[in-house]
Amino acid sequence: MAQSAVPTTAVPAITPISLKSIAPWAVFFGILMLVLLYFVGAEQGATAVVSGEGVHEWVHDGRHLLGFPCH
Fold it and tell me: How far is it, in rounded angstroms, from Cα 53 to Cα 34?
């Protein structure tokens, strides 16, 4: 008797990721992005949190790349 030449393999089932497990990470990265956006877009202006020119020099090129005016 001839046997089949094609081996059969079981495909593993994909388990969905619940929204409860993603939500804390989404909130964390959302807050992180807002803080980054603040430092790139508004720091060293009227609402400066850090005094001096240090933060401005670190994010200067990013401001121009994202279209924020700085000088």
Answer: 21
**What is the residue whose two structure tokens read 């001839």?**
2
Verdict on whether the full-model pTM lies above 0.85: no
Instruction: State the Cα torsion 55-59-61-66 to the nearest 10°.
Output: -140
- Residue 41 CB-half CA count within 13 A: 9
> What's the whole-number mean pLDDT along residues 35-45?
76
Distance CA 42, CA 46 (A): 8
- Helices 19-41 and 54-66: crossing angle in degrees, nearest 10, is 110
| DSSP three-state, residue 27 | helix
